[in-house]
């Protein structure tokens, strides 16, 4: 498939998104942009959230991780499932009771202005980095398989990718995204299913032949329960996955903004539970695809692609789909899935960053309706420029599998959010609000120090995703030290 064909496919897909944007963005109101008029059907939100949760990172990087870590990622996924139930029955009732637009408004009501700003800033940094990780992965694929052939620099590839996203979200916002995410999830899942089908055909296998093959057994180890010091130990992965979900979904404006478009708490809860169960199955299918890719590459002696001199298993899926002679059908389904994965996470990230910055930092509520709309559009442009800058920086500093890099960053940046929300929900204490910044800064520095200690200093123990709950626990105890004493009851009452 030539770069010209790929570009035509991207252009056709983009025109389809623009058509959806035209119909959903006619109103161009702040209420539609931020909350879709609170009228989105729960099943539509649930299906679209699958694509937003998976993103390009799961689409490419999870299959690429199978060679090094087998199916150990499923241990993290089962932790995700537990985390989604916590969100459905603990966090969603709070948000709906308060009728918030930004979920960090809870922190202002519970503790005060400084806690509110710290929570919003933690999300902002986390989402900028997370969205940039996802966009970076898709950009390097487009660069390697399309734009390098035309001599287009990586920086321009990034700019074009984000400009396309900005164009179809700048009017409709979350209302547009609810519908485009649904379409993009459908393309992504079809792409994975068809890729598995066509690769099995090339190997002269049926799907059941693949599942029962000796080759699959080399990659399909699921449970890691032996060495507690192992980074992929079951308990560490499960707890890390659970708290990653609580933070990256339940305490994240991006994901919660979709849930808050539902008509009621009951609908939002149905959305969360159904979505979480489907996500377990979908992640397992991605790991099956990963094993199949490495089996296929061994059978036909396809080398792991390199970028800047380094082998990148993230690029094996696009290499096989586009350059291994599987045919146009595989190439087209892969590209549709990749584009869908890229846009389904990036468009919602751009909208949620705009929402959070307008409400949490710029005090949009104090402006007139027309002033709000102007501010929203200016901020939307500003967030686009910020994502462009961070993605370009990643090209020069990122040196690991992207899914691992994404989850590692989450263990640092979501800790203050986890600690603040946990303290607010589990205790009735107020805080000496102005000191929360000192607590959060001290905890993050401590966690970064621990995460970078050599394994030999810890008796061979490898720190993994369990660092996130530990980060939250340290924050919780730090907040305990700055709690205000409860007022004494008057005598005789």
Question: What are the salient characteristics of this protein?
Answer:
two-stranded antiparallel sheet; 493 residues; single chain; mainly alpha; 21 helices
Uncertain regions: pLDDT < 50 for 5+ in a row?
none
DSSP strand tally:
2
Taken from the alpha-carbon principal axes, the silhouette is: globular
- The share of residues in helices is over 70%
Supply the helix-strand structural class: mainly alpha
Folded structure, characterized:
With about 500 residues, this protein is mostly helical. It has 21 helices and two strands. The chain has a two-stranded antiparallel sheet. Helix 1 runs antiparallel to helix 9, helix 3 crosses helix 7 and helix 3 runs parallel beside helix 14 (about 265-300). The mean pLDDT is about 80.
């Amino acid at each position: 498939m030539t770069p010209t064909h790929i570009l035509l496919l991207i252009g056709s897909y983009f025109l389809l998104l623009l058509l959806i944007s035209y119909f959903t963005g006619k109103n161009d109101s702040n209420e539609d942009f931020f909350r879709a008029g609170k009228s989105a059907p729960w099943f539509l939100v649930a299906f679209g959230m699958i694509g937003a949760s998976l993103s390009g990172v799961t689409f490419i990087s999870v299959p690429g991780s199978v060679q090094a870590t087998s199916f150990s990622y499923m241990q993290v996924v089962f932790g995700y499932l537990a985390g989604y139930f916590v969100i459905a029955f603990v966090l969603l009732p709070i948000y709906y009771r308060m009728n918030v637009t930004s979920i960090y408004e809870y922190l202002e009501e519970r503790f005060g202005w400084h806690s509110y700003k710290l929570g919003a800033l933690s999300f902002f940094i986390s989402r900028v980095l997370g969205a940039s990780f996802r966009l970076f992965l898709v950009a390097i694929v487009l660069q390697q398989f399309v734009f390098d052939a035309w001599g287009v620099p990586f920086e321009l590839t990034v700019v074009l990718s984000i400009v396309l996203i900005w164009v179809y979200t700048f009017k409709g916002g979350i209302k547009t995204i609810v519908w485009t995410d649904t379409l993009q999830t459908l393309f992504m899942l079809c792409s994975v299913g068809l890729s598995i089908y066509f690769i099995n055909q090339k190997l002269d296998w049926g799907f059941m032949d693949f599942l029962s093959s000796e080759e699959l057994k080399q990659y399909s180890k699921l449970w890691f329960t032996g060495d507690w010091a192992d980074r992929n130990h079951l308990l560490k992965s499960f707890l890390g996955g659970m708290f990653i979900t609580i933070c990256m979904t339940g305490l994240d404006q991006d994901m919660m903004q979709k849930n808050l478009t539902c008509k009621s708490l009951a609908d939002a809860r149905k959305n969360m539970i159904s979505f979480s169960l489907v996500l377990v199955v979908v992640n397992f299918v991605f790991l099956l695809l990963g094993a199949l890719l490495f089996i296929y590459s061994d059978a036909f002696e396809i080398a792991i692609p390199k970028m800047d001199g380094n082998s990148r298993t993230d690029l094996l899926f696009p290499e096989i789909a586009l350059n291994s002679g599987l045919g146009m059908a595989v190439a087209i389904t892969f590209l549709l899935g990749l584009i869908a994965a890229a846009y389904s996470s990036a468009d919602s990230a751009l909208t949620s960053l705009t929402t959070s910055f307008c409400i949490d930092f710029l005090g949009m509520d104090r402006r007139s309706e027309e002033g709000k709309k102007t501010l929203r559009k200016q901020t939307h442009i500003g967030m686009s420029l910020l994502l462009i800058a961070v993605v370009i920086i990643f090209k020069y500093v990122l040196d690991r599998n992207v899914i691992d890099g994404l989850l590692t960053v989450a263990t640092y940046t979501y800790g203050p959010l986890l600690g603040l929300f946990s303290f607010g929900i589990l205790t009735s204490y107020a805080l000496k609000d102005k000191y929360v910044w000192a607590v959060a800064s001290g905890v993050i520095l401590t966690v970064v120090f621990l995460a970078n200690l050599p394994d030999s200093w810890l008796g061979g123990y490898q720190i993994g995703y369990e660092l996130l709950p530990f980060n939250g626990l340290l924050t919780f105890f730090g907040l305990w030290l700055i709690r205000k004493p409860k007022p004494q009851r008057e005598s005789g009452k």
